[in-house]
Amino acid sequence: MTETAPRTITVQNWQDPGNLGQSFLQMDRLFPVSVIRAATPPGAGPLVSRRLHSFYHLDVPLPDGSRMKVSEVLSRTNTDAWMLLRRNEILAEEYSGDMDSGTRHLLMSVSKSVVSAVVGVLVGKGAIDVEKTVEHYIPELGNSGYQGARVRDVLDMRSGIKFSEEYLDRGSEVRRLDEAVGWSTPREGGQTTLKSFLATLRQHREHGSYFEYRSCETDVLGWLCEAASGRTFASLASEVLWAPLGARHDAFITVDSAGTGMFDGGICATLGDMALFGAMIRDGGLALDGARILDAAWVEDIFQGGTDSAEAFAAGPYSDTMPGGQYRSQFWFLSEDRDTAFCLGIHGQMVYINPRTGVVGVKFSSQALPVDPFAGPAAAAMFDAISATFA
Q1: 106-129 pLDDT, tens digit each
Q2: pLDDT at position 1
Q3: 104 alpha carbon, distance to own chain's centre
Q4: Mean of the pLDDT values across residues 123-150?
Q5: Looking at the predicted structure, is the pLDDT value of residue 388 above 90?
Q6: Which domains does the chain have, with CATH numbers?
Q7: What's the CA angle centered on 13, arms 11 and 15, to 5 degrees?
Q8: Residues assigned a catalytic role
């Protein structure tokens, strides 16, 4: 039987489920990008040792009450690569297909946590006050639905903006956002830049009320970073985050026709560098070499949440699937467990962070569904089971 030749990946078909395993590795070929420079010289960074373990036969209790081995979870969740870091030791590191340690993979909404960290640095430097309104820094949004929204409201996705995150609905705002940044062909009369799109959004409820996940919030934060610093996001992120982190490889972010980053999901980075990012959050804002990146109070606030963060989550649309959950500064808490923070992206991107056990897990995937009801909870349960062995 003759094998079918690999399909050419294009801007039109890159999000087709059968193409994700390749397209997530080719974003710089498909779209214009800005580079987030790593440490100099290339390959420099903190000392990380390797003591590889096999976790394949470890039992994973799944949310539905069934059990599965780690090897089964990995095989059933379209895993492109995964890593486990404890303290400064790599305990697991595996790649599939065309991936290796230098391959940059699309982070999707894990990008949101990276953008949040840059915001946190600017807050620590006094360049951003989270209690000020968005239009204080971005006057262009003064006539939009964001008028009156505080930076803190946007960080916690508690603005009153009307925005549908229905990925499978071609008419949803999240898909119109894709068109504006060039990730898909814009419809007639649609916006063709991120900033022009954000200015069209309207308010439909009070700012500061319940939590509702919306990608546009992170795009406002990326714009905020540029407005407050007078720098492009890529240049700023390199200086205050990526290079101090000790990242071994440049990252990049896709940009729209005006050169504005796709902040909510367009960052691409290597597996190991995302483990370093997770370790920095785990260690209270310190890079593995001891360099201070984020104020300890900023990171502590992510884990503790605000005085009403739990109530805001419970009042939103995710309380049934994640009872006891919380969302703070673009990080997820999937249950009442405040020891474990997650960075999450559609199609199976995950960074797992547990300061109590010292475990950081990173998983890159190419799941067919944007939100898979089995794969996401199974991957989280897998990292929980591994982390529990170090408790």
Answers
A1: 999 999 999 999 999 999 999 999
A2: 36
A3: 14
A4: 98
A5: yes
A6: 60-388 (3.40.710.10)
A7: 95
A8: 109
